[in-house]
Specification:
Elements: E1 2-8, E2 11-16, E3 26-36, H1 38-45, E4 60-67, E5 79-82, E6 85-86, H2 92-95, E7 106-107, E8 119-123, E9 127-129, H3 135-139, H4 141-154, E10 161-165, H5 169-180, E11 184-189, H6 192-202, E12 206-209, H7 215-222, E13 230-233, H8 238-243, E14 253-256, H9 268-273, E15 277-280, H10 286-298, E16 307-312, H11 316-319, E17 332-336
Parallel strand pairs: 10-11, 10-13, 11-12, 13-14, 14-15, 16-17
Antiparallel strand pairs: 1-2, 3-4, 3-8, 3-17, 4-5, 5-9, 6-7
Helix pairs in contact: 4-5, 4-10
The protein binds zinc ion (ZN) (2 copies).
One zinc ion (ZN) binds next to helix 2.
Keywords: Oxidoreductase
Domain Alcohol dehydrogenase-like C-terminal: 169-297
GO molecular function: oxidoreductase activity
Length: 337
Amino acid sequence: MKTLVCTAPGHFAFREDALPEAGTGMARIRLRRVGICGTDLHAFEGTQPFFSYPRILGHELSGELIDTGGAEGFEPGERVTIMPYFSCGTCIACRMGKPNCCTDINVFGVHIDGGMREEIAVPAGSLLHGQGLNADELALVEPLAIGAHGVRRAAVQPGEYVLVTGAGPIGLGTMELARIAGAHVIALDINTDRLRFCKEKLGVHAVVNGTDADAVEQVKAITNGDFPTVVIDATGNLRAINSGIQYLAHGGRYVLIGLQKEAFSFSHPEFHKRESTLMSSRNAVREDFEHVIRSMKEGSIRPQTYITHTVAFDEVPAQFESWLNPATGVIKAMVHF
Ligand SMILES: [Zn+2]
Ligand SMILES: [Zn+2]
C-alpha cells in the first residue's frame, strides 16, 4: 500500500509498505479522509517540539472498518473515526480517568506513525461509530473534541461570557462547543477574514480584533463592564497567551488549549487580584468525542464549513507547503483517499 512519509522538515516521500496486520485487539481501517491540522504543519515546518523524523503524519481521520479487531458492537464495513491518543492504562493519569494526559501517551501521527496511508491498524478501543455522519464530518470530530474538552475543563455555564482567542480550526470548534454549552461567545483574532467567518458562519455574539488599541475596552463593553468569566486560548501564540489574562473577569478561569514551546509569563498581581484559575487542556477523552458526534448528528455543529481546501492523497506533497501560507485562506485542508 502507498504511504506518505515526512522524511525530514520540508520533505515528503511516498513509500510502498506492507498492509498492516490487525492482530489481537487491533482494528484495521481503510482510510477515506485525513484532515490537516496545525500539528501536521508544524511538524512539516520543523517547529513542533519533541518531534522525530521520519514520521507518517495524520491524526484527524475517517475510514471504513475492515477488521474490527474484536471491538464489541462494531461491524466490518462500517464508517468509523478514532481517538488518536493511545494511553498506557496504568499510570497515575490513566488511573484517575484522564488517559488524555497519560504519562506514556502515544499520539497517532505525532509520537507514532499516523494516518497518511491507505490502511492503518489501531487499538480496537480507539474506535468510534460513524453512522449518520459523512466521511468529512467524521474526520472533523477530533479537532472539535479538543475544543469540547477545553469547554468542559472550564465548566462553562449557560449565560457566561466566554472569550476564545484564535479562530483557527481548534478555536472555531471551541467557540461552537462553548455556544452549545449556553455561553455568549466572543471571538478574538488578528485576522479580519477569520473574524468575519466567526460572525457570519458561526454566529458568535461578538468579535474583537486583538490588534485594535482598545481591544480590552471593547471586551469590557461587550460584557457590560464585567469581562468574560472564561478565557480560552486556542492560539498557542506566546504573546496571545501572555496577554490573555487582561481580558479575564475577577473570579474567572483561564484555559490554555494552544501549546507554546517557550515559557509564558504574566503579571502576578493581575493574576492574583482576580483569584484566577489557570488550567491547561490536553487532547480529549471519549466523553468529548461522543458529545461532538451527538452535536453533529443534531445539526448544532456544521463543521464542513471549515473545509476550505480538498486534495487527493497523491497531491499532498505538492500542496502541503501552500497551507503554511495564510494568504491561501486555509482553515481546514482535507485529504481524500
Ligand atoms: Zn489535530
Ligand atoms: Zn497512562
